[in-house]
Amino acid sequence: MIFYDCTTAPSPRRVRIFLAEKGITVPTEQVDLANAQNYTEEFRALNPLGTVPVLKLDDGTCIGDIMGICRYFEITNPNPPLMGVDAKDAAIIEMWNRRAEQEGMLNIRDAFRNRSKALVDKAIPGVAEPVPQIPELVERGQQGLLRFFRMMDKQLRGKEFVTGERYTVADITTLVAVDFSRAAKVSVPEECTDLLRWHKAVAARPSAQA
What we know:
The chain contains seven helices and four strands; from the N terminus they run βαβαββααααα. Helix 1 (about 10-20) packs antiparallel against helix 6, helix 4 packs antiparallel against helix 5 (about 135-155) and helix 4 (about 85-115) runs parallel beside helix 6 (about 170-180). The chain has helices spanning about 10-20, 40-45, 65-75, 85-115, 135-155, 170-180, 195-205; strands spanning about 1-5, 30, 55, 60-65. By secondary structure, the protein is mainly alpha-helical. Helices cover about 50% and strands about 5% of the residues.
């Protein structure tokens, strides 16, 4: 089993935090995104989308999806449960995790990849052919991210964690979104006191350093 990682990218960090919370150690190989290793034929054989992370199992099966990898480890190592303990719990966690992806991570991607000078013609991750930046998406992404912060602040009112009393994968995705928002040149507003209180607490967990 090999975990293809990149320590500078936010997506693999979500899996690293997940594994740290589970107490799982996996052999790791770093993918050099800065030097376009993800565009090579060798890496594309692992994941045709050209993105990290990728988990290669002992039988050669490759899982090139964050939540697919997390689901694999949730089933093979069920404790502590990070993706739900019953149907209702799993559905609620999935809902908030997807909201953190769609309203948080995707808005950051738009704001970051459409303004970075280092990503000219690479506005969509993993795509080998040129994809031009769209400057108008920067402001839209930033505004969407502020809406996400306000939504999460409301959700966290009176709660220790995103979905209640237990730390879950929804907390992991939200944490990475808040941390990576600096790339979008957006900070959590001071009035989002519950989100800031939550972030301080989860950022202090040992797994957050993964």
